[in-house]
Design a protein that fits this description.
Elements lengths: L1 E5 L9 E7 L6 E2 L4 E6 L4 E5 L4 E5 L6 E3 L3 E6 L52 H10 L17 H6 L21 H16 L2 E9 L1 H17 L7 H15 L5 E4 L2 E4 L5 E3 L1 E3 L2 E3 L2 E2 L7 H16 L5 H4 L4 E5 L18 E5 L2 E8 L2 E15 L5 H16 L1 H4 L5 H4 L3
Parallel strand pairs: 12-16, 16-17
Antiparallel strand pairs: 1-8, 2-4, 2-7, 3-6, 4-5, 6-8, 9-19, 10-11, 12-15, 13-14, 17-19, 18-19
Length: 414
């Protein structure tokens, strides 16, 4: 029996996928549920499992865009498994080599006879006083200039016309490579351009003194890790809790535009940008306002592992009412993050650097972080955007009171 394997639908809005990589060869014996290909959609890279055991015949090439429901391979379920589990291979007829075409050497050009070089003397290559001054100002060596004066002397005109040598590339690798962008990368590029062109995006900035968070982390991180099975107490849980608090205070930041209507949400689904082998992924922490510090850290860790292992799904990245992007882990000091449409706001975190600041009239050194809020000005006014970012700053600089109800041990479930 010949089984036709068709492309399953990765999501409701996805109409086609791209064959990123075949994990098997034409004529291989495959087992049921064995991963036979990786396919790119406009939202994620997914594995395609074999629906039955048998000999496979591929019907699409790597890089082909195929519609959802199209046949991509055939599986002969009546074929016997090769003895010893050795994959069957099709014999290939030897390919005829194309006849070599001898390259014609370019005919030597007949050059016009060059004028005999002027006889050298003590004056050859020696600049006149005026020429020497000009060459010194240009930082050009006399040996790099050909003199046209009497007996080869470098004249003032030679110095004026002389230009510094920019050097000629020699040696080293100067090759280039052209590769096709994956469907996921093309879709990301399309969405980023759309976000720039279709929203009234604006960015506001502030800075956060990270000392209060560092004091809490230094005091409780070991107990937190021991109590919660090795789970680390990172910065993301503090930022997520500060963001959900600020979203409740400024609900317009937690809203979206749909045509001529505004959609407001009474929950906070926080999209968290994480880096995976296929590029940037933005999975969603659902109902983050109801999660504890441990709950946020556990969920972010789970999603990050799935992204790292290539197991992230479309459902993991669908939705989200607000995004947090942490460019600081890569060393970014300051940036203007791009909105993740159809959301209306994104918070950019950056690296932490010790800087001198004024505290109660005294100069002190503290670990400081710049934060940036990019927002859609069509739905969020300056008052809401600035107020939201100030509320985030307040929560981060006073976490014990505003995020932990003055009881860090209870908030951390210790």
């Amino acid at each position: 029996m010949i089984l036709e394997m068709k492309v399953p639908s990765p999501g409701e809005s996805i109409k086609e996928v791209e064959i990123a990589t075949w994990l098997v060869k034409d004529g291989d014996y495959v087992e049921k549920d064995q991963a036979i290909a990786e396919v790119d959609s406009d939202k994620a890279t997914l594995e395609l499992p074999a629906e039955a055991s048998g000999i496979i015949t591929l019907k699409a090439e790597e890089g082909d865009a195929v519609a959802v429901g199209a046949v991509v391979c055939l599986i002969d379920t009546d074929a016997a498994k090769p003895a010893g589990g050795v994959e069957s291979q099709k014999s290939e007829s030897p390919k005829e080599e194309a006849p070599k075409v001898e390259e014609k050497k370019p005919e030597a050009k007949v050059e016009a006879p060059k004028a005999a070089p002027a006889p050298t003397s003590y004056a050859s290559g020696t600049p006149s006083p005026a020429a020497k001054k000009i060459l010194d100002e240009k930082n050009i060596q006399p040996t790099d200039v050909t003199g046209t004066g009497k007996a080869g002397r470098i004249t003032k005109e030679d110095a004026v016309n002389a230009t510094p040598s920019m050097g000629t590339p020699t040696g080293g690798n100067r090759g280039s490579e052209r590769t096709k962008l994956s469907m996921l990368r093309r879709k990301v590029a399309e969405r980023l351009v759309a976000a720039k062109n279709e929203t009234a995006m604006l960015t506001t900035f502030n800075e956060v003194n990270m000392t209060p968070i560092n004091l809490i982390r230094n005091e409780y991180k070991d107990a937190f890790k021991a109590k919660h099975g090795g789970l680390g107490l990172g910065y993301m849980s503090f930022f997520t809790k500060a963001v959900t608090r600020a979203l409740k205070l400024f609900p317009d930041v937690n809203s979206m535009i749909d045509g001529n209507e505004k959609i407001s949400y009474d929950f906070c689904d926080i999209s968290v940008a994480v880096s995976g082998p296929k590029g940037l992924m933005v999975p969603v922490v659902r109902s983050a306002e109801n999660l504890t510090f441990r709950g946020v850290e556990a969920e972010i860790k789970r999603l990050a592992i799935r992204a790292r292992d290539g197991q992230i799904t479309v459902d993991d990245m669908t939705g989200g009412t607000f995004t947090i992007s942490n460019g600081g882990v890569f060393g970014s000091m300051l940036s203007t993050p791009i909105i993740n449409p159809p959301q209306s706001g994104i918070l950019g975190m950056h690296n932490i650097i010790e800087r001198p600041i004024a505290v109660n009239g005294q100069v002190e050194i503290h670990p400081m972080m710049y934060v940036a809020l990019s927002y859609d000005h069509r739905i969020i006014d300056g008052r809401e955007s600035v107020g939201f970012l100030v509320a985030v700053k307040e929560g981060l600089e006073n976490p014990a009171e505003l995020l932990m109800d003055n009881n860090p041990m209870k908030a951390l479930e210790l």
